[in-house]
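Example 3.2
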Amino acid sequence: MASILLKRLMSTITLKAAPSKAHHHGPLPATSFPAGFVLGGLHAGVKKKAGVPDLAVILSTSEHPTSAAGCFTRNAFKAAPVIVSDDILKRNGGYARGVVVNSGCANAVTGKQGIDDAWAMVKETDKLLPAKETSQFAHETLVMSTGVIGQNLPISKIVEGIRSSPKVLGSDFAAWERAAQAFMTTDTFPKLRSRTFTIGGIEYRMAGMDKGAGMIHPNMGPASTTFASTKQLHATLLGCIMTDAAVSPRSLQSALTYAVDRSFNSISVDGDMSTNDSIYVLANGAASNGTPVIDEETNPDAYDVFKRELTTFAADLAKLVVRDGEGATKFVTVTVKGAPSYRDAHNIASRISTSALVKTALYGEDANWGRILAATGSVPLLPSAAGAPAPVINPTKVNVTFVPSDGTKPLPVLVNGEPEQVDEVRAKEILSLEDFEVVVELGMGGDGEAQYWTCDFSYEYVRINGDYRS
């Protein structure tokens, strides 16, 4: 009955169409994909519609050891694939050679059966890995699932799909694209990117895919490997990044944890954290040419370059999720400057980006900067030292500016705590753009600065999520 009433209500509302997002996906050059990986996607029967990819398999074929790192949701109701993959990374000390992903069913809140099913996916994919005499690990496959929560996987269909997957595995763009398509749920386009980069005169490649359009507000921390640092504040969001660089497991995890905080943990569509959020990185060393393994302690210069490349690449993938937010018509960068610390700036940017009042004003193209200030002022700042009082924002020092993406003049709406005489026509012009930025300068004398990427709330978002399971 509720679904019927929702449909009737939505039929009475004139919807503003979301802009086409097809231009965010296109062919990528074969030379930009990392060596030593084969992958593909196929229809296993998890999704009802025939022919739609719902199972992806990714295998490292490199003769070198393949380091693996992960960041996982911190939701208390961690899905079975999260629990199993974290366990594998911990047991192996940060090594894995395969990833298997299904869409259409999250395998979350599914009890013992869910754990058994996740292990079944791992064990079946392990059989596809190239035999290695040097491998000492019982299991070398990580698993991910996405879709509806609280339903068991059609595991027999998935196992059969894994068995038949070798016929679709490849290393060209079509194979990478098909794998990216198998990640999708309510996504409107496959999210796939690649790049080349150079460290010490050696050219490496990095490519990856992610998915997500709703239930997006990740809060991920590092895997429970013995070398992982203390977990920090880090949809359904799934992502997998592959590189042919050789990176030590401890340094790969360190770089991923840093990158995730500044990419996937800095996006929000609707403020809801998923039970399944997972990001993996595989580094198989296929292009290392005998050079030393990249390591934070023994090769810090090379590590810094790699960490920077991974961070910007992860940010590129994360932004695609926001651009494809369910019903989204705007892509908004929220920048907070002049905070006492990065963490303070990040917390404030997060609060602005998740405010329903801010997001609905963005959809309505209403320059309601008072909502931005209310969100900003609601965040308690962190003490600078143990026992020290937390700093307090001085409203007379705060500035708020709308910055258009078309290169035209920014529009200040608050200067040193005093409201400007806002040109509403100009404000409407900026807020009608698909991309723009909101800059909040706290004026606290600190160098803390952070960005968050968010989107608006539309009627279409309500329609999609009011009807999700049907």
